[in-house]
Amino acid sequence: MTKRPPETQTKNTRRAFLKTLGASAAGLVLAPTVFTQRRSKKCIVIGAGFAGLSAAYKLKTAGWDVTVLEARTRIGGRVFSHKFAGTDLVCELGAEWVGESHERLKALCHDFNIPLQKHQFEDYLLRDGKVYRPGEWGFSSQAKAAFEKLIAGYEKLTPLAKSKLDKYDWWTYLEKIGFNGDDLRLRDLMDSTDFGESIRHVSAFAALAEYAESSPKNEMDYKMTGGNSRLAEEFAKRIGPENIHLASVVRSIKQSPRGVVVGGYRVYPPPPGSHAESLPSLSEITADAVICTVPINSLLKIKFDPPLPPAQRDAAERLTYARICKNSVLYDERFWRDENFSMVSDVTSHYYFHSTQSQPGKQGILTSYAIGEKADVLASQSDERRLRIITNDLVDFNRDAPKLARGIASYAWQRDEYTDGAYAVYKPGQWFGIRPILARPHGKVLFAGEHIADWQGFMEGAIETGEAAAAQLIH
Asked: What is the pLDDT of residues 196-220, one digit of tens each?
């Protein structure tokens, strides 16, 4: 998820409110179910993304017997670092930023000796073929004043006012408070990169909270030196590779008074080092509890016995995920020159940013981050055509961009068979309407993942929910 600087900042009132709400709801549901299962200390974690790995690590540290099942042939989920062949240059095809406010993520990097490096930008604007440097473009004075007032009043919003705000889309609400047509189109170019879809489809409360509660750079602050996948690798070392089974697809979860039985199948042949060959038939795996961390698209393919409550199933069916296509292009030279270069544009490639900050060498990587219909257009092209589109979109910035390009690595998350998108998008009425329902435990099955996180859409959110689910079992 990308971020833009809001005019002012406030305290994390949404996160405090949601944590209080979530804790009380979890206590009510779990008291007669999971808490009675503490004696045998065996848990199956479904999913080896950051939510699943953080849950498994916390349980393992507390002495639990943990089995992690992952359908992919790699760990990390939507964290997916990439190194171009023949270079030492690393970019991210998945989750990108560690924010200044991401305390758990920063603490884990410190504990695991993973250095963080600065990953902040100053935005250029490419619009109608014209290039504007940072500071040369912005909103009307009326829009600035309206936004500043909106941010300043965020802390004073009552629960009823937040609920009403949730029923608006962000575009309509900004128009309501005084943004003109040009302001709205510019805001859409910028903010749509945060949510993966046009702001016409995003809850106004979710958007306002995103900007009112973040760091001055809106959590576009750091990345992990050597790639964000390093954290997944460090988790795996401590969980034990023998406890993580890749190519293992879960299709059923059956609960009984004796525990939970997880069933499914393995993808053959199992990837090297996956330990899938040592795993018995998935239908035979039994535990005292399950933490399910998979995205909604995968969750809906699991047969629950007893079934998910109708309201929870309905909530899952209504939640959609963002269409995002990340395209990292390797260039022979860093023609953008500024180390902190990024550029918002009105062309297909949408948002560009420098992916090789603090990485030495003449060559460099510039990533295009396209959302919505633009992401679908790029995803439908061959690598050769996609490279041509992305580099030609830069001609107005630098006419030599096409001839300097040497390779491309792309990932269209809306085409991912497990996620069907990059991260959850909460539409008008859904933040308070369906998100709390999705977070409810189902008997001995607890849920985690960025889609139910306070830091929704971030690695931090995945980790916080994974750790919270594990803590409920431990305590």
From this structure: 999 999 999 999 999 998 877 778 8
